[in-house]
Specification:
35% helix, 617 residues, 8-stranded antiparallel beta sheet, 6-stranded antiparallel beta sheet, alpha/beta, binds 2-deoxy-2-amino glucitol-6-phosphate, 19 helices
């Protein structure tokens, strides 16, 4: 969701800005633009891909040592060139240009005030108020850095901003609150240095690995003479420079056609990496989650899981595990609902946030809301070490899935599940609900998980065959029971987000309470059917579907009790994996969505209207 790059150097920064935007494409966007600064300011914007923008920049021979760039995911105002960033404000010989990620909540009040002051608005965006506000402060005689400090004091909402102005060469200023922005420290030599701003590290790997994460309220100035930061109070601030561990290869497509495909096949390795500290030990310990974990877990009486989308589905699976294995009551809430709900905060609750990006605005706000209700024990299960969510949580367990570039979350989900399972074991052990022999047995199953997943991935050819039959359909039902019901929900989400087929998931026992009315010969029904304790119940539900002419596509275990026949198609995945079964059973559903999307010719990694990192509410 919206990406920002800013650069100052003693060389042409246009290729750096364009490459940065290309590396931010995965976040999701619908238009892009750059503004560059020489003696004057120039801008090029385009609806569509960064490659279109690059072609336009080449046509106009754009060359400059200073610039800002942006990929926009439309919120206020439709997808059009006039709404694409950067936005300009130009009057009385003062010209500024601004890019922004986030939402300015008081934009209407500011717009009215700025209209009264004679500013003219040419876009439908909330961002344009920032450009005019910044302009007004520069026009009053402030330098760009001070003008930005004055500007952000007047903004309500979430933002990451970068700006330039005519008359202050080799200078970019930025600020953040609620949306990510980091500083990249580049090469320096006797003639000066180069510095950068970006929404995330991947955008800068081509020029630097040395980054500093800005705090909420920070305002930063970068130049060829160095950089300076002030905090929300306007006091000079230092933010530690860290060496990013992100490797350029990890964001290359390699031999795969799409990032989603690559990420599906990376899952065994991602799980092995995530489990490294667990499977090398002879038993699970609270310390895996942080220094304070032993003490916090010991007082935990209730768990509240907050997340969105796929991460929310991971939380739903975890509820089954945590209650069954550790005996702790668990509530799982959609973050965007929880943050605005009048809820009852139970004392001694551990708040667990689950997120791939760690920057999801709703999840961050939900965590903050829980804190205001007095729930201060928090654990983040997250894939991005430096993310806001990790920094704001007392405990953490990082999923070591590597960058997830495809919008459809896959390896983040299975690594989240793996960590949540470990959490259940740790809590069970601490509460003396896990006999040493059972702990060893479950640890052995965890060690075997990557191999078991490799075995499941071998079903790809059979799934591809099914995909051809799914592709012409307009609707699909997904069924599961127990801990596999959230897996069915995740399968339906995957199918709808990348193939645009309408898909709904139901707990199979609910069929006869309504959705059975939808079933006819045109309704494919996907069933998650492991050999667990509910298999006989599930079989009865499948008969109900067959009796109405619905065609069944069943993902079962090796020795399944379900017989293939006319209208009952079965793919056998392997041996039943016991408690870990949901982690394996989601994989064929990911493959099904991927191959259906391929047949339908959709943009698999960047599905329409969606973004990878949802940094606005
Ligand atoms: C799922 O494929 C999506 N990418 C989406 O539902 C995602 O899981 C959700 O937006 C939450 O993101 P997070 O894990 O980064 O917080």
């Amino acid at each position: 969701m919206c990406g920002i790059v800013g650069a100052v150097a003693q060389r042409n920064v246009v290729p750096i800005l364009i490459e940065g935007l290309r590396r931010l494409e995965y976040r999701g966007y619908d238009s892009a633009g750059i503004a560059i600064l020489n003696a004057g300011m120039e801008r090029v914007r385009s609806v569509g891909r960064v490659s279109d923008l690059e072609a336009r920049a080449r046509e106009m021979h754009a060359i400059a040592p200073t610039g800002i760039a942006h990929t926009r995911w439309a919120t206020h105002g439709g997808v059009s060139e006039k709404n694409a960033h950067p936005h300009f404000s130009s009057r009385d010989g003062v010209e500024v240009s601004v890019v922004h990620n986030g939402i300015i909540e008081n934009h209407e009040a500011l717009r009215a005030r700025l209209l009264g002051a004679g500013y003219r608005f040419v876009s439908d965006t909330d961002t344009e108020v920032i450009a005019h506000l910044l302009h007004s402060h520069v026009a009053s005689g402030l330098k760009l850095f001070e003008a930005m400090q004055r500007t952000v004091r007047e903004l309500d909402g979430a933002y990451a901003i970068a700006a330039i102005r005519v008359g202050e060469p080799h200078t970019v200023v930025g600020s953040r609150r609620g949306s990510p922005l980091l500083l990249g420290v580049g090469e320096s030599n006797p003639e000066g240095c180069e510095n950068f701003l970006a929404s995330d590290t991947s955008a800068l790997l081509q020029v630097t690995r040395r980054v500093a994460y800005l705090e909420d309220g920070d305002v930063v100035r970068i130049g060829t003479d160095g950089y300076s930061i002030v905090d929300a109070e306007g006091k000079p601030a230092r933010r530690p420079i860290v060496e990013s561990q992100l490797s350029a290869e990890s964001i290359d497509l390699g031999r795969y056609e799409h990032y989603m495909q690559k990420e599906i096949f990376e899952q065994p390795g991602a799980i092995a990496n995530t489990l490294e500290m667990v499977t090398n030990a002879s038993s699970v310990s609270a310390g895996l989650f942080g220094a304070e974990a032993d003490e916090i877990f010991a007082r935990t009486k209730h768990i509240l899981i907050l997340a969105c989308g796929t991460s929310y589905h991971a939380g739903l699976v975890a509820k089954y595990w945590l209650e069954a294995i550790a005996g702790i009551p668990v509530s799982v809430e959609i973050a965007s609902e929880y943050r605005y709900r009048d809820s009852v905060a139970l004392p001694k609750t551990l708040v667990v946030t689950v997120s791939q990006s760690g920057e999801t605005a709703d999840t961050l706000a939900a965590l903050q809301h829980a804190t205001t209700l007095g729930l201060r024990d928090s654990l983040s299960i997250c894939n991005v070490p430096e993310s806001a969510l990790v920094r704001q949580s007392r405990l953490r367990f990082l999923t070591r899935a590597g960058p997830e570039i495809g919008v459809a979350s896959t390896k983040a989900f299975t690594t989240q599940l793996t960590v949540l399972f470990v959490l259940a074991l740790v809590l069970a052990r601490q509460r003396r609900r896990l006999a040493p022999s059972r702990e060893q047995e479950l640890l052995a199953q965890l060690r075997h998980l990557p191999a078991a997943m490799n075995h499941v991935l071998a079903c790809e050819d059979a799934v591809r065959h099914w995909a051809n039959r799914f592709a012409p359909k307009q609707h699909a039902l997904f069924l599961g029971r127990g801990v596999h019901f959230p897996i069915a929900q995740e399968g339906a989400l995957k199918l709808k987000e990348i193939s645009y087929i309408h898909a709904e998931a139901y707990a199979a026992g609910e069929l006869k309470h309504g959705p059975l009315a939808l079933v006819d010969r045109d309704m494919p029904v996907v069933v998650v059917a492991p050999n667990d304790a509910l298999i006989e119940k599930l079989k009865s539900n499948l008969h109900e579907v067959r009796a109405r002419g619905g065609e069944l596509f069943v993902f079962a275990d090796r020795d399944t009790l379900i017989e293939p026949s006319d209208g009952i198609n079965i793919i056998n995945l392997g041996d039943h994996a016991g408690l870990l079964s949901p982690i394996l059973h989601v994989v064929p559903l990911q493959l099904l969505a991927y191959h259906v999307a391929l047949v339908r010719g959709t943009d698999v990694d960047k599905p329409r209207n969606l973004a990878n990192s949802v940094t606005v509410e």
